[in-house]
Amino acid sequence: MISLVTGASGFVGAAVARRLAAAGHDIRVLLRANSNRRNLAEFDCQTVEGDLADPSSLAAAVAGCEAVFHVAADYRLWVPDPAAMNRVNVDGTVALIRAAQAAGVKRIVYTSSVATLKLPLNGHAVDETSIATVDDMVGAYKRSKYLAEQEVLRLVKTERAPVVIVMPSAPVGPYDVRPTPTGRVLVDAASGRMPAYVDTGLNVVHVDDVADGHLRAYEKGTIGERYILGGQDMTLRALLEAVAAHVGRKPPRIVLDPDMLIPIAWMAEMWARLGLGHEPILTRDGLRMSKKKMYFSSARAEREIGYVHRPAALAIADALDWFRANGYIH
Question: Which residues in the chain land under pLDDT 50?
Answer without folding.
Answer: none
